[in-house]
Amino acid sequence: MNIVNVHQRRLEATPAQVALLMASLGSQADRVWPPDWPRMTLDRPLAVGAAGGHGPIRYFVTAYTPGESVRFQFTEPEGFRGWHSFTVLGATAEDCVLEHRIEMETQGRATLIWELAIRHLHNACVEDALSQAQRAVGNTPLVVPWPARVRVLRWLLSAGKARPQTLQGDARVR
Fold first, then answer.
1. Among 57, 64, 21, which Cα is nearest to 39's?
2. Model pTM greater than 0.85?
């Protein structure tokens, strides 16, 4: 199955702020990854060749242009062939759009897993990450509430220990 999945959010931030934000990905001081999800970790600072992942998803960095984009190649789960990225679009001195994109093909069992669970969890996680990015640069985050399916999947996968969605600060709810 061919998959293209895109999420975007406007950030009122300078290029320098966005560069620092992106450079923190996968680090102990990650300012993008949302707190309610399995942490994104990398085996070294963000750079080509850094390997890591979040939850059962594994990948390595294939391209990184500080302040502009980072691309990760999937290595797991089996049947995921493609990449995901964060890219800064339309940057001016005052704002930009931060985009997360997946382009991949799934094969076999991975197609079923994507359709039944990962797609829904991924969409909620990325929307939370974009809200976290807005918060990190001092914007009021636009929070997208988790659909019932996401709440149920998180509860099932955590054996009933999943926390509810955290709405922080003066969040605007979509």
1. 57
2. yes
